[in-house]
Design a protein that fits this description.
single chain, mainly alpha, Rossmann fold, Glutamyl-tRNA Synthetase, domain 3, 3-stranded antiparallel sheet, binds glutamic acid, binds zinc ion
Length: 467
């Protein structure tokens, strides 16, 4: 049997890490068994399509490369189909209209709470049958079995049992004629031939309700796996309500998609001691049985650590276009500075995110005629002008632009001007890169190239002269 999984978000906000991890696990499970992965948008609980949320879902999935084999399907385009099934269910006694007013339901609830009972619909209209006063406003409820129990084997949690007496006769069609999530999910999981439902633990209570609907309709349910929640560093559940970070924010912040996926796959799943998994390894090794039952805690520094690993280890050419995006966003031309790829290559291992790379290297391009004057002033020596002139002269006549020869010039200049290497290097560092921390000075000068280096030293000399 072909494995078919789905990711079925409700478009009620941006996707956060928890939802995307659910998507990733469903996707990996399908890939592992050469199956299919479906994207289904569950939007019957909404008044109108929240296009922004839909876009955010689609863009997030595309950014991460979680491609779907079919969809996106929108449940709102199937309303007639759901209604037809509900009509049959009413005809065969599996569902019934409930005419109870909101007032009656509110009263019932407060009495139940006062008497220490679990608030639950009392099946008033099911018991009264046709004796109800038939006002226009009614909902359709599923006639849940009153006795017995529902049991299923969760692929992560093992055997789960719910008593039917605990379950409500849930509303499957609202008074406005729109069916509800629990019902639509059953119909779609059936019609889309879903074999495995992998979803958040917050849906564990829905599963017995959905299983009862499957059973009533004589349909075979899929297998279920409920994955634990992700908690933030304060042990709060990640959720849309808590305004948790939108997945696309990680993109803007310079997290690589492969790093985020790697971080998420390891959050709650393990395979020996391995930390780094490329996509192919994930697809081959992912095993639902090794998913952790306990909640996991989001750890930003681990995400950054993995991101840094990827930044340092993938070819610079793979991240170059992403760095160029930042330059475009800030409208900065890279033509007049040093070779961008070489500069990225030099600074990437010192950065945890792509944005950090950008922040470290933007100086080389933003304002070619600028010097970080305040910073430079901290390090100026009395004979600084002389030192810089000497370096300028010697770099200009250098035959082969090599780190060895560059280093030699700096060393000789230090000796000749009676100072040490560090005192010569520091001002140069600031002149070229605008910062105090850089890779070694010979490599920095070498990477900046002759034209840029000479141009910058000249500008610095003008500044020192004027001072
Ligand atoms: N639409 C549900 C949600 O966004 C998911 C339901 C499911 O996976 O069955 O939480
Ligand atoms: Zn009722």
């Amino acid at each position: 049997m072909e494995v078919i999984t789905r990711f079925a978000p409700s478009p009620t906000g941006k996707l956060h890490l928890g939802s995307i991890r659910t998507a990733l696990y469903s996707w990996l499970f399908a890939k592992r068994f050469n199956g299919k992965f479906i994207l289904r948008i569950e939007n019957t609980d909404q008044k109108r399509i929240d296009q922004e949320s839909v876009n955010s879902i689609i863009n997030s999935m595309q950014w991460l490369g979680l491609n779907w084999d079919s969809g996106p399907y929108f449940q709102t385009s199937k309303i007639a189909n759901y209604r037809a099934i509900i009509k049959n269910m009413i005809d065969s006694g599996l569902a019934y209209p409930c005419y109870c007013s909101q007032e009656r339901l509110n009263n019932l609830r407060s009495v139940q709470i006062k008497t220490g009972k679990k608030p639950k619909y009392d099946r008033h209209c099911r018991l009264l049958k046709n004796k109800c006063i038939k006002n226009k406003n009614y909902v359709i409820r599923f006639a849940n079995p009153e006795i017995g129990y529902v049991t299923f084997y969760d692929l992560i949690r093992g055997k789960i049992i719910f008593q039917n007496s605990e379950l409500d006769d849930l509303i499957i069609l609202r008074s406005n004629g729109i069916p509800t999530y629990n019902f639509c999910a059953v119909i779609d999981d059936h019609e889309m031939n879903i074999t495995h439902v992998i979803r958040g633990e917050d849906h564990l209570n829905n599963t017995p309700r959905q299983l009862n609907i499957f059973k009533a309709l004589k349909l075979i349910p899929p297998k279920y796996a409920h994955i634990s929640m992700i908690l933030d560093e304060n042990k709060r559940k990640l959720s849309k309500k808590n305004q948790d970070t939108d997945i696309l924010q990680y993109k803007d912040d310079g997290i690589l998609p492969e790093a985020l996926l790697n971080y998420l796959v390891r959050l709650g799943w393990s395979c020996g001691n391995q930390e780094i998994f490329n996509i192919d390894e994930m697809k081959n090794l992912f095993d639902i049985k090794s998913i952790n039952k306990a909640n996991c805690i989001f750890n930003k520094s681990k995400l950054l650590w993995i991101n840094q690993y990827y930044i340092s280890n993938i070819p610079t050419s793979n991240i170059l276009t992403k760095i160029i995006e930042y330059f475009k966003t800030y409208n900065i031309d890279t033509k007049h500075g040093p070779n961008l790829e070489k500069i990225v290559n030099l600074f990437k291992s010192r950065s945890k995110t792509l944005k950090e790379i950008f922040n470290q290297i933007v100086y080389f391009y933003r304002d070619i005629y600028k010097i970080e004057i305040n910073l430079l002033s901290k390090y100026l020596l009395i004979n600084q002008k002389f030192i810089l002139e000497l370096i300028y002269k010697n770099l200009k006549i250098i035959q082969v632009w090599s780190t060895k020869d560059i280093k030699n010039i700096i060393l000789k200049t230090a000796q000749k001007t009676n100072t040490n290497m560090k005192n010569v290097a520091m001002p140069l560092r600031i002149i070229l890169s605008g910062r105090e921390n850089t890779p070694s000075i010979d490599i920095l000068i070498y990477t900046c190239g002759k034209i840029y280096t000479l141009k910058k030293i000249k500008i610095a000399l003008q500044f020192i002269t004027n001072k």
